[in-house]
UniProtKB/TrEMBL annotation:
Record's keyword terms, sorted: NADP, Oxidoreductase
Name this protein carries in UniProt: Putative oxidoreductase
Binding site for substrate: 108
Gene3D superfamilies linked to this entry: NADP-dependent oxidoreductase domain (3.20.20.100)
Entry EC number(s): 1.-.-.-
Lineage of producing organism: Bacteria, Bacillati, Actinomycetota, Actinomycetes, Streptosporangiales
Protein family per UniProt: Belongs to the aldo/keto reductase family.
Amino acid sequence: MSTPHVTLNNGITMPQLGFGVWQVEDDEAERAVKVALETGYRSIDTARIYDNEAGTGRALRASGVPREELFVTTKLWNSDQGYDSTLRAFDASMERLGLERLDLYLMHWPMPSRDLYLDTWRAFEKIYADGRVRAIGVSNFTVPALTRLLDEGEVVPAINQIELHPDLQQSELRAFHREHGIHTEAWSPLGQGKGLLDEPLLRRIGDAHGRTPAQVVLRWHLQIGNVVIPKSVTPSRIAENFDVFGFELTPEDMAAIGEMDKGNRLGPDPATFDLM
Ligand code: NAD
């Protein structure tokens, strides 16, 4: 089974459902990515700070899946922001991944207080112009940070990867993205598996479709147009999270989940987060 793809603002396509490897140690990431690729996932989301680019790269190379079928994302860590340091950090990530060319490079956080994201973005534009990455984007960017990037940068980010799940639906950012041709990618799409998946509403909707709460949540993301990258290291859940194309939520289901928005963040506030 293959996943639907979305078309990014520069014309390239990306699987709408991918696999995330945050908080997975290098060797375990290698095993989990192997299982994910065997299951059918073709898009993998890692980052410098996850410390598993090497394991991810080993699994990608060993899989035998043709490179052009894979979509690989990694992210620049905060302490590498700045023009020259970004160019060096990109080379180092590519070395660890063992790839010639990346599909998507994201700036992990804007860190507005440090005021380096424009210089950093210029380095992203250079890497893109040099053909070393097929698309560039950002993560955790707020409307003010995106507005400045759009005003002063050359390339419109293809993606903004943000915390997004039924408890934090990010309607303002999603509308801004739509207006500017930026695709929304949801991190922690399952709410990190914490309280969200115990919500009786999700269980009720799932029961009506013969599906689990996690599948209902992933289906909700897909139907509102998000790119999603759920994480699991458990093979049965890796399979369960991929098996979301054989059913559809009704308009009533979608409206009921839409009512769940509490504006609750699990992660830090991007307006102030500046951990290096
Ligand atoms: P997630 O919402 O994908 O939840 C993952 C957790 O949910 C798992 O550890 C497991 O405990 C549980 N789970 C997974 N599948 C399940 C299932 N079918 N049934 C029940 N429980 C299940 O959380 P995440 O890992 O935080 O986010 C996904 C990916 O997003 C990350 O791996 C990473 O790639 C990316 N991410 C990016 C940022 C960023 O700042 N850009 C931040 C966090 C995460």
